[in-house]
Amino acid sequence: MYALHDHVLMKKPHACGVNDWEIIRVGMDIKIRCTGCGHIVMMPRHDFDRKMKKVLTKHQDQ
User: Fold this and answer.
1) For 3-39, what is each residue's pLDDT tens digit?
2) pLDDT value of residue 59
3) Which strands, in side-by-side order, build the sheet including 29-34?
4) Pair 21, 2: CB distance under 8 Å
5) 37, 22 Cβ separation under 8 angstroms
6) Where are the domains of the chain?
7) C-beta neighbour count of 8 within 10 angstroms
8) InterPro entries in the record, alphabetically (predicted)?
């Protein structure tokens, strides 16, 4: 699945042209940050599950 600080690919690109997002909050709502311009979007988990295409990179815990 996905976890905090994973990079995910969304179905539609952001207005800046980047399709790569970082998950910065996980709960009832998911908060993601665009890796291109830094814009933050918060959406319900149901909407996020529909709009996410795949996980690009998993966050490595140290």
Assistant:
1) 999 999 999 999 999 999 999 999 999 999 999 999 9
2) 85
3) 40-44, 29-34, 20-25, 7-10, 52-57
4) no
5) no
6) 7-57
7) 20
8) DUF951
Determine how β-strand 7-10 pairs with β-strand 52-57. Answer: antiparallel
> Which amino acid belongs to residue 60?
Q
Q: List the structure tokens of 62.
A: 């140290």
Task: Give the DSSP per-residue string, 1-56.
Answer: ---TT-EEEESS--TTS--EEEEEE-SSEEEEEETTT--EEEEEHHHHHHHEEEEE
Please tell me the distance from the alpha carbon of residue 59 to that of residue 12, in angstroms, as a whole number: 22
For residue 1, what pLDDT is reported? Answer: 86
pLDDT at 61: 64
Q: Which stretch of DSSP H or E encloses residue 55? A: strand 52-57
* pTM listed for this prediction: 0.89
